[in-house]
Amino acid sequence: MAEKIILPLADPNATLETVGGKGASLAQLSAAGLPVPGGFHVTTEAYRQFVAANDLQPRIRAALQEVDPSSPHLLERAAQAIHCSFDRSAIPEDIAHAMNAAYTALPGTNPVVAVRSSATAEDLPTASFAGQQETYLNISGPEAVLAAIKNCWASLWTARAIGYRARHGIGAEGVSLAVVVQLLVPAEAAGILFTVNPLNGRRDQIVINASWGLGEAVVGGQVTPDTLVLDRETCHILERQVAEKQVMTVQVAGGTSEQPVPENRRGVPVLDDERAADLARLGVRIGQLYGMPMDIEWAWANGKFYILQARPITALPEPAALAPVEWPLPNPKGQYMRASVVDLMPNPLSPLFASMGIPGIVEGFRRTWRALDHSEPVLPSDYFTTINSYAYGGVKFTARQWWWMLSRMLPAFPRLLRTAVPFWRNEVHPNYQAAIARWEGLRLDELSAAELWNGVSEILGAALHYVGTLMIATTGAAAGSEGLLTMLYKSFSRREGDPPATTLVMGYNSIPVQAEKSLYDLALWCGEHPVLSAYLQATPSEKLAVQIVDGSQPGDVNTGEWQELQLRFAQHLKRFGHIIYELDFGKPLPLDDPTPMLEMIKVYLHGEGVNPYQRQSASEEKRKQASQMMLDRLKGLRRWAFRKALNWAQSLAEVREDALADIGLGYPLLRQMLKELGRRFAQAGAIRQAQDIFWLEKAEVEAGVAGLESGLKLSDLAATVEQRKRFCEQMKGITPPSMLPPRKRYLGFKVDAFVAATDSDQVGNTLKGIGASAGTITAPACVLHGPEDFDQMKPGAVLVAAITTPAWTPLFAMASGVVTDIGGPLSHGSIVAREYGIPAVMGTGVATHRIHSGQVVTVDGTAGIVTL
């Protein structure tokens, strides 16, 4: 029995099946004579016997039945149920005895160890599961070691581990967990070594991250480490960045703690040239041992290096795979750019939105034009289109289209700009609300497939009519009005020291600001209840989201307070949960995952962030003072013209953000209807899970609906869905050209005035963009690819994103600056950055690909330059 339960660290039987990925790697390193701390393996057999002895597998299976990898609530609920089962289960006596014997055989009395999970689906060449299971450091004593081992077993079923395996198609039945128990290295310094350069893919370079103390602060991203780039052949240092290291992980009684780095060591290099070269040579040996690029955790203690872990680097792109071979144009003679409403579509589109939403935007614009001008607009067939799943606008016009724009559209625009906002407010917005109301109270599971599809079509049609109206009523009009106001402000009487023109259109109590205030109010209320406040701050937001939304109450919190919190949070979600991250209805809404909102409440509870009431009030006062100052200076015709321009721009600024915020008003119901259709498609064998419906095209859904209505067998589209998912994932790593074919000028204007910079324009360590909010800041970057990354945002960081929409507003309370791939002076991010008084650079084209989280950047919002 014991030989199956325990194996020596370098035992030849320590394989992936017996000791998991981490254990097998450590066994290989140890057997090769590399400096690995001593210890032993608790094999997967021990886990299986524990599960069998306590009859846990049926409970695991039951908990996973309703899991949806895109739903953090369901993942967390499943994880909690499984963890409770593990908590109540005892380790069989013979297994506990074998573990205790192996532990007491280690040198010393009650030696201090690290207890580390090692899953059978982990650290593989095709998927790195780093961080999915738990590690417990500074554990001492047999009982503490046994408890840590059981906690490691339970961590096979954390929400993030369940979701990660589900997304990678790894079933629940075959997975098991081993545990590695090793002597803890009392590290003076630690970090990570990459045997290739993970930023540019160069195989002839080694990259080392290094910081003081244990390596947890580096691995967990709590500290900006020193970064060294070395030549792989010579191990000479090519580049060294010495960070101001603020935090270090140290050993404390029963575990570890984050503590400030002493002042006299913060700016001191962790590794000198000689030690860095020695470590690099160890990295070369390990790379040769495995025959592939490796990510290696290391520590320095007692005058020598120790290797703590080595795993394959799975996300390293080949240089040839950085871009597709071609960007095929829908019209070979066409011209396409990513601008206008495309700013709301920064990522590859879901196939269903591409096939329904893109044509729907064009039709929405046509409907608005017909209603306002009583004529048919003459637009290109590719006015909006997709290329490699990215949205583009077609800007190549025929002679007939030019004639229509010059003879009909331009003369009509002054009148349309006067009538479009009332049309949006009095007709389009109410009609959108009415379409939602017609379907809102119905039981979706009682509707036929055809009825569901009719509802989807009606609500989406109303939503995209709304978007088409905004293109005239607010987006285009706001750009024109603010441009005119800025020109008059600068030319009439602006003096040195006067505020920028954008001050004249700031400080309105828009819907995104109201959402921010709502979270702030909720945080203030929670702060009045100390036990509740302490629980919220100490509990992971994923767990809180499940408890608050699904109704389970923690034992220590007062029942009345908890129910009031649930009520207030539900009211917040009802009012603001529809505010979109992206125009694509296939992408989640704030309503789908409330964890970012809970993170923001915690920020306020910690005393961080900016009071939105004070900020908005200050901006409003500045606007009023600047407006009155200019009016007092001007006389006669100039005063009349400036007042007209001011009133026009301010009236549009007041409604612009509200209009954007309500684009997604029907999206919650629309997504529910589509998921109900998807559930039926999955039952019929067409797709694997309900949310896969977003990966179908309109014609495929229509065919499926017809099949369900007729009782016919549906086509199996599962393979097609998986192929589309893989293509989308590949395209996410690519910077789409801002203009196709590439051009420097269009219609005599410089292209960079209205589209993002191209990849070829951005060379060296500076990124050029559009200065959207003045000022300069130097700080670590935080690169967020979507709401799933919001919990990574740290107070004082520079927010880096493809684009920000109204749903991103609460993050600005933590940001010291903003950088985006696309967007311009009137983008949502620009407006909010100016409200917050933080520097912003928009339209860099490549920020999310060139900048990595933790990297220190300087954002010059006046010059429009980001320095890496």
Please name the defining characteristics of this protein:
5 domains, Dna Ligase, domain 1, 868 residues, 25 helices, alpha+beta, 8-stranded mixed β-sheet, D-amino Acid Aminotransferase, Chain A, domain 1, 15% strand
Overview of the molecule:
The structure is a single chain. This protein is of the alpha+beta class. It has five domains: about 1-185, ATP-grasp fold, A domain (Dna Ligase, domain 1, 2-Layer Sandwich), CATH 3.30.1490; about 190-315, ATP-grasp fold, B domain (D-amino Acid Aminotransferase, Chain A, domain 1); about 335-485 and about 665-730, no CATH class; about 485-665, no CATH class; about 745-865, Phosphohistidine domain (Glucose Oxidase, domain 1). About 45% of the residues lie in helices and about 15% in strands. It contains 25 helices and 27 strands. Strands 20-27-26-22-23-24-25-21 form an eight-stranded mixed β-sheet, covered by helices on one side. The protein has a six-stranded antiparallel β-sheet with strand order 9-8-7-6-12-13. A hairpin with a 4-residue loop joins strand 26 and strand 27. Helix 13 runs antiparallel to helix 20 and helix 14 packs across helix 18 (about 595-605). The two termini are about 55 Å apart.
